[in-house]
Amino acid sequence: MARYIGPKTKIARKFGEPIFGPDKVLSKKNYPPGQHGNARKRKTSEYGIQLREKQKAKYTYGVLEKQFRNLFDKAARSRGITGEVLLQLLEARLDNLVFRLGIAPTRAAARQLVSHRHITVDGKVVNIPSYSVKPGQIIGVRERSKSLEVVVDALAGFNHSKYPWIEWDQPSLSGKLLHLPERTDIPENIKEQLIVELYSK
User: Fold this and answer.
1) Distance CA 177, CA 136 (A)
2) Which CATH fold topology does 93-179 show?
């Protein structure tokens, strides 16, 4: 499966949640898209519920199937609760942290900034969105990219105190990953245990 580039509202309506951020259409049409979207829902099987949760996590973080499976396998081999470790690995991705730091308005925009070599890690340009940031590393905006309109607009009025696992330094337009987030600090509405159950079959 290639990366999804279609209408994001369609996916948000499929899950009934604004997984890509505030959505005006979703608030008006809070039912699945398509001809039968507003019809009476059929009961979803246990497998269907688990699969839906995995798909929601993939779309939320913008990760493809193979990448997601590799992250799950890594989480399963790590110490700790597999579901929580999986979310921590997703949160530690460079594109996600650029989004969390407010440098980009969405994860898709953050991915583009990374790919186009506007982002640095510990002073060196990194253009791999899936790069796994380690605690203590500093994510910054490349000097010549600090005046980019998308960056300036995204940072304007952004509340950097809402994520306790990252620290922001406004003068240098850089942030540090202090530690991996606790599950209670991750705001995404994902039932990670269902994903673990799906892959454990």
Assistant:
1) 6
2) 3.10.290
pTM of the model: 0.83
Residues 6+ apart with CB under 8 A from 154: 102, 103, 104, 105, 109
Across 40-173, the runs of DSSP E, i.e. the strands, are 119-121, 124-125, 138-141, 166-169
pLDDT tens digits, 125-177: 999 999 999 999 999 999 999 999 999 999 998 988 889 999 999 999 999 99
Q: Could you state, in order of their start, the residue ranges of all structural domains in the chain?
A: 8-89+189-199, 93-179
Mapping DSSP to helix (H, G, I), strand (E, B) and coil, where does residue 120 land? strand
In three-state secondary structure terms, 87 is helix
Q: What kind and span of H or E run contains 153?
A: helix 149-155
